[in-house]
Design goal:
The complex is a heterodimer of chains A (171) and B (643).
Chain A: H1 3-6, E1 14-20, H2 23-33, E2 38-44, H3 45-48, E3 58-63, E4 86-91, H4 99-105, E5 113-117, E6 123-127, H5 131-168
Parallel strand pairs in A: 1-2, 1-4, 2-3, 4-5
Antiparallel strand pairs in A: 5-6
Chain B: E1 3-9, H1 17-26, E2 34-40, E3 43-49, E4 63-64, E5 70-78, H2 81-90, H3 100-111, E6 121-129, E7 134-139, E8 148-151, E9 155-159, H4 162-168, H5 177-185, E10 202-203, E11 208-213, E12 219-223, H6 229-237, H7 242-257, E13 264-267, H8 272-284, E14 290-294, H9 304-314, E15 317-321, H10 330-341, H11 349-363, E16 366-368, H12 373-376, H13 384-392, H14 397-410, H15 421-428, H16 430-443, H17 459-464, H18 480-492, H19 494-506, E17 511-513, H20 519-527, E18 534-535, E19 538-539, H21 541-546, H22 553-556, H23 568-574, H24 578-588, H25 596-607, H26 614-627
Helix pairs in contact in B: 1-4, 2-3, 6-20, 8-9, 11-19, 15-16, 24-25, 24-26, 25-26
């Protein structure tokens, strides 16, 4: 399904693309977005240098640092106060270094979907809760995380005891 | 385990025995027990023998068929040779000796190239068919045994190692710049696309055979095995209990790899795979083996706790190896490893492996090894994300949160940054994911900011390279995890690991056999649903379950993973060779391949303890040592770089 059909938002959709991957993967993503109204692409300079085809309706922000928000100054400030409908992550490797810096500066966090491209161009979409649903999700998940932080050491103790007994029995 | 070599003079001139002997002398380490040369018109076949099966002179090679039609030079083992022999006898074949080599000849006689699909083993061989005037070459399915080819206008050459070609054709000692680019930049696995470390010497593809016509000098290569996952599904999975099937296949794979007229030992790391092999030999086949294990005083690199448990559990005779003892210096060892590999070694772990085989060679000629299980049964951390993503579609969010928490916090081999953002956000929600990453990232190791994002190559070197490596496995699967298994087994991992293993072992005339690379297990694993490979936070789940009788509880429930560790990061900083390391690494900068400031930044950050740059620094060291043995005069336009 083309990305533009997956996005929820106004006619003039605002899409933020955070790109830190091989150029051909980034360009694959941009080609699939090309009909979307307003695209902002932020990429480290080394990635931006390889982007030979950028759609006319896209603006490219070249970051000086190797990652997002790690460069000098407040180079992500241009993203402030923009309510993006969707955020597209094009990630070149494990994790996505500096993404939290991007999220901090995006005003409103209005986007409801995040679309991820991995280093071979495989795409995954994650829906983001908004409003009260988001608050509820944050509360319940953090409670569960807290609970597991308590129960896991107990489980590990039981497992270690089991293993020691098994060793004594020569198993 | 032997060595093969040979050539064909394309102008029809007589093949020189001296030249052939020059080739086989270069690979004498692969076969110290005997040597043989056959020169006939413009064709030469040479062999170095390591006697494993039928130790008599009847096993000498090159071996001729009874009727004189065929001559073969063979390296490898066909483990099911006894069964094939029985079948061939029923078809009217006659045999003069007890070797698997003769079985190969007769199998080819009766079945032609189709015989390859019947072989269960590892091989690289060249078979001369005098009647058809063809030279038939083949390599096993998974690149366990090596085979190099040089195909020039004047000569066609083949050999187990590139050094056999270079020994008699020194003008071919030209480094392949593409390989250097891939090696330094980690842009592609080594040895894909048929590239070797020498510009004109190619690697013969796995799962293939080639036919060289002596009449036309044409050489055509075809595949005899392809990973047909739907077919494997019908053959090994449908209507069967996967746990029982895997157990039976594993038992038999180990059993047939124990066939030898010499003692067989095992490399034991203390991990799941090698422990299962040792346990199977002991509990199933009643053999208490000699086990060989690398041990370090540095606890971050030592798996002694698990090794000792396995040895006690299986009644094995432990032979610990202490690479730190250093009978030769690290630098000398790295030079030897490079020479063995016909190219620079890719990591310091090869030093641990090399040390183990040095000791193995003093005791036994054959060892079993657990290579292959991580690629086939999702043992590497990289498999976790796609597997968990798949599980998230059917599991409850609560169980997914629990599973991810387990993996993040207790698997000390997985860096938190390896968790895919999309998976983390889907399971934890955006806000909790960001909080969790902030918290966990503080505990994870980090590279110093000043070393990130540095230029990997100089403009001068980059200008020489136009490389678009085909990183993908040519065989596609719609399932992401199956695709990763295919990629790792056929492209990214197994070919290189087999090359490493063969290269290190042969220096000490040791043959390595890998039960997990039994083609039946490979086919089974590729067709197996990923839910049997990763269950919750447990990787290689089916091995833990199906082989539990062969594994002590502590090993069965082990989650952390080390891969032939070696504390190179510490040797760089503290060993008495650290100045020598420094000199070599910094002199690499003069080659103008990597910017000097990059090398210096990495080195200084590592020495100050700000970052662990051992991987990059080892590659620079290894490559520099290897480049010192190369000839650059023939490389065009590289005046600015390399020499």
């Amino acid at each position: 399904m083309p990305i533009q059909q997956m996005l929820i938002g106004s006619e003039t959709m605002k899409v933020l693309v955070c790109a830190s991957a091989r150029a051909e993967v980034v360009m694959k993503c941009l080609r699939e977005l090309h009909q979307t109204a307003e695209i902002t692409v932020i990429a480290p300079a080394s990635v931006a240098a390889g982007l030979t085809e950028v759609p006319k309706n896209a603006r490219l922000v070249r970051l000086k640092g190797p990652s997002f928000g790690d460069g000098p100054g407040n180079e992500l400030d241009i993203l402030k106060d923009i309510c993006f409908d969707a955020v597209v992550i094009v990630s070149g490797g494990f994790g996505f270094t500096g993404f939290q810096n991007v999220v901090k500066v995006i005003a409103g966090l209005r986007f409801r979907q995040m679309i991820f491209y991995n280093q071979i161009g495989r795409r995954e979409t994650v829906r983001i809760c908004v409003g009260a649903g988001r608050t509820w999700e944050r509360l319940t998940v953090s409670t569960l995380i807290g609970l597991f932080k308590v129960t896991r050491p107990v489980e590990l103790l039981i497992e270690r005891t089991y293993i020691q007994c098994a060793e004594l029995l020569g198993l | 385990m032997c060595g093969i070599a040979g050539f064909i003079n394309k102008d029809g001139s007589a093949a020189s025995v001296q030249k052939l002997k020059g080739m086989t002398d270069a690979i004498a380490h692969r076969g110290p027990d005997a040597e043989g040369q056959l020169c006939e018109d413009n064709v030469a076949l040479g062999h170095r023998r390591l006697s494993i099966v039928d130790l008599s002179d009847a096993g000498r090679q090159p071996m001729e068929s009874r009727d004189g039609r065929y001559a073969i030079t063979f390296n490898g083992e066909i483990y099911n040779y006894q069964e094939l022999k029985a079948e061939l006898i029923s078809l009217g074949a006659a045999f003069t000796n007890d070797t698997d080599t003769e079985v190969v000849i007769e199998a080819y006689r009766y079945w032609g190239a189709a015989c390859l699909s019947r072989f269960n083993g590892m091989w690289a061989f060249a078979l001369l068919d005098r009647k058809k005037r063809e030279l038939f070459l083949s390599r096993d399915r998974f690149a366990v045994k090596p085979l190099y080819i040089l195909n020039r206008n004047d000569i066609f050459m083949f050999a187990s190692e590139a050094k056999a070609v270079i020994a008699v054709q020194p003008e071919e000692n030209i480094p392949d710049l593409v390989q250097i680019h891939r090696f330094v930049g980690s842009t592609a696995p080594e040895n894909i696309d048929g590239h070797s470390w020498y510009a004109n010497i190619r690697i013969f593809p796995a799962a293939s055979y080639g036919i060289y016509s002596l009449d036309t000098n044409s050489f055509e290569v075809n595949a005899y095995w392809r990973p047909d996952v739907p077919e494997f599904q019908k053959k090994w999975i449908d209507g069967r209990d996967p746990i029982k099937t895997f157990r039976e296949l594993f038992d038999d794979a180990v059993k047939i790899r124990l066939r030898a007229d010499v003692e067989v030992g095992t490399c034991l790391s203390g991990g799941l795979d090698s422990s299962a092999i040792v346990g199977c030999c002991s509990k199933r086949h009643g053999i208490a083996m000699r086990t060989f294990s690398s041990r370090y005083g540095d606890k971050s690199c030592d798996e002694g706790e698990f090794i000792d448990i396995v040895n006690r559990f299986s009644g094995s005779k432990a032979v610990p190896v202490y690479p730190d003892d250093r009978p030769i210096s690290f630098i000398e060892a790295f030079q030897k490893i490079n020479a063995n590999h016909d190219g620079p070694a890719s990591g310091a772990s090869l030093y641990s492996q090399y040390s183990v085989f040095r000791e193995v060679g003093r005791h036994v000629k054959v060892v079993l090894d657990g290579q292959g299980a991580d690629e086939l049964f999702c043992g590497y951390a990289g498999f976790l994300n796609p597997a968990l993503r798949k599980a998230a579609k059917t599991s409850s969010r609560v169980s997914m949160i629990r599973t991810l928490m387990e993996i993040l916090r207790e698997n000390d081999f997985i860096d938190a940054s390896q968790l895919s953002a999309d998976l983390g956000i889907q399971v934890f929600g955006l806000d909790n994911y960001l909080d969790l990453m902030e918290e966990v990232r503080k505990e994870a190791s980090a590279q110093a900011d000043q070393v990130m994002g540095r230029a990997p190559f100089t403009p001068a070197f980059s200008a020489l390279i136009n490389d678009k490596p085909d990183r993908s496995c040519p065989h596609k699967s719609g399932d992401e995890i199956t695709q990763m298994c295919l990629d790792q087994t056929l492209v990214y991992s197994i070919p290189q690991l087999c090359h490493n293993e063969d290269s290190n072992a042969m220096d000490f005339s040791v043959e390595v056999r890998m039960p997990f690379l039994d083609y039946r297990i490979v086919e089974f694993a590729l067709a197996l649903d990923s839910s049997y490979k990763i269950k919750g936070a447990w990787q290689k789940w089916i091995i833990r379950k199906a082989l539990k009788d062969y594994l002590p509880v502590k090993v069965r429930r082990r989650r952390n993973k080390m891969e032939y560790p070696a504390p190179f990061f510490r040797w760089l900083r503290e060993s008495d060779e650290k100045e020598a390391f420094k000199e070599i690494i910094l002199s690499f900068a003069k080659r103008n391949i990597v910017p000097a400031e990059t090398i210096e930044a990495y080195y200084n950050a590592h020495m100050r303890g700000e970052a662990n740059m051992e991987q990059a620094l080892f590659r620079y060291l290894s490559l520099e040592l290897w480049l010192r043995t190369c000839n650059f005069d023939k490389i065009p336009d590289c005046a600015e770089v390399l020499s």
